[in-house]
Amino acid sequence: MAVYTDVADDELRAFVALYDLGEVLSCKGIAEGVENSNYFITTETGNFILTLYEKRVARTDLPFFIALMEHLAQKGVACPTPLRGRDGTALRELCGRPAAIVTFLAGMWPRRIQPFHCAGVGQALAALHSAGASFTMRRANDLSVAGWRPLFAACAGRAREVHPGLAEELDGELGFLETVWPCDLPSGVIHGDLFPDNVFFRDRIVSGLIDFYFACTDALAYDLAVCLNAWCFEADSSLNVTKARLLLDNYRQARPLMPTELAALPLLARGSALRFLLTRLFDWLNQPAGALVRPKDPLEFLRKLRFHRTVTSVRDYGLDA
Amino acid sequence: MAVYTDVADDELRAFVALYDLGEVLSCKGIAEGVENSNYFITTETGNFILTLYEKRVARTDLPFFIALMEHLAQKGVACPTPLRGRDGTALRELCGRPAAIVTFLAGMWPRRIQPFHCAGVGQALAALHSAGASFTMRRANDLSVAGWRPLFAACAGRAREVHPGLAEELDGELGFLETVWPCDLPSGVIHGDLFPDNVFFRDRIVSGLIDFYFACTDALAYDLAVCLNAWCFEADSSLNVTKARLLLDNYRQARPLMPTELAALPLLARGSALRFLLTRLFDWLNQPAGALVRPKDPLEFLRKLRFHRTVTSVRDYGLDA
User: Fold this and answer.
1) Closest CA to B279 of B265, B266, B303, B296
2) Most exposed of A73, B15, B118, B178 (fewest Cβ within 10 Å)?
3) Does one domain contain both B210 and B231?
4) What is the pLDDT of residues B166-206, one digit of tens each?
5) Which residues of A touch B202 (CB under 8 A)?
6) Do B186 and B261 meet the contact criterion of CB atoms below 8 Å apart?
7) Domain boundary among B103, B130, B163
8) Which of B10, B26, B111 lies at the smallest CB-CB distance from A106?
């Protein structure tokens, strides 16, 4: 639950006047998302989303994110499309923060994941990767293997507050992944955070992907491993093999997976589970006083991580190959 | 900042299907309001507000609020109008809570109050009171003089945490108001909470009044006293006489004030200041652990209360009469 910045009506009116959108009729802070402040705005010409980028998103990364959304939209991916003002600019300032207006996407994100959702996500992710192939800007994944050690170091001393023996287990896992992490897989633009709250559905069909603020250049199969962790486990942290098969099969029907990618998948899934475990652990241990956001449970990803350690081949994810 | 209940997409779809609104295209929790959970919903036929009534609003009061909004809308007051489903019902259940869909109102609430806002509020309040004259349901004001003593009793022991000597000052004020509180003024439906965040403007004109969940039957001039406190003070808690005059003059052009109402206004303003001081004090001292709402400063209303104590006649509010 976010909205960190209160935008005054007169400032908003002046801001929107820089675009060809007509008069602002309404602006409501949206109680979702934790990285930025998002507002649902209605103008004489329609509904839009206004985003104010708060501290957690680096200003230097914003041109990458804006250009990526423009590129993907142009390639037919249903994602928020940044609007350009009459001066041709999409990224400007509001209330002392970088700000952009993007298109509004119809659809709702699913609370209870059904198998058809996983099939849709697989297709949508493959389409995103294909559309991203012609995007020329690059951004390193600062939350990949090289970023995990510093994150772990910042949490290790207090990890036992969350779970006994957690620091030792993470230290061992981290050491292993640092040694074997693959670096030669097909790479390109990845979403990096394609959880259910970032995928809109309409009539059982994916109608939009949102929140590209972890997007970066990395192994495409890693993005698939993120989705495996985000979509295919039940509430008790057991894998739903039907969902996993639908995710992976629908992905590879649109973008075939190389044998190296299939072989690396269990490892990528361990890494992805560790990445979310570490960021959640950090947020859990560093809740600001008076925070408006309830941190998510890090241990959900410890259970997923342990599962992937038992996986010997993609057959355990429901695939034949 | 609210949204206490997460509404699942499938539950929402089933709920909206009870109305003639077409398919739901989007639903975003609104990060405003503290009493209820509000969602901005977009359907194939337009934009609407879905409200889930949380604990703080008594279920038994909901038929009054719903009927009042329907009545006022019918009389031409721009306010949220409850929609009736195909079964003729406006109030039903969603996620175990009473819920209603109301019309969406264009406009934004003003952050920086200008004199013209006060003129508009005066007119709108008089129009609300006139439209309410033919409304036959009644609801006692449980936050009027009889309700202040129990609220004070619940806070008195810890009032000094907020301000030294506060309990003694409030005790004295309360004793005085209980003795002299007027009970023979013209009464009817009042809004009871017409603060800036409950009044939408468009092009310097009031475009809507919202949040009728403190509405009740009480002295009409008391509602005006609430607005005086809510709209006509500067950030340093000094009265802006121009704003006060515009509020009061515009109100009485549409609904003339009786001499008894004018004479009672300073007293009503003291009572209104005490009412908001007490509820804010209570909320300040009773913040639930992990609350998502930052309580408002109670002392703002102590300063206003002290000002009204120095007022000898409505001339101090900028009026000639």
Assistant:
1) B296
2) B178
3) yes
4) 999 999 999 999 999 999 999 999 999 999 999 999 989 99
5) 23, 25
6) yes
7) B103
8) B26
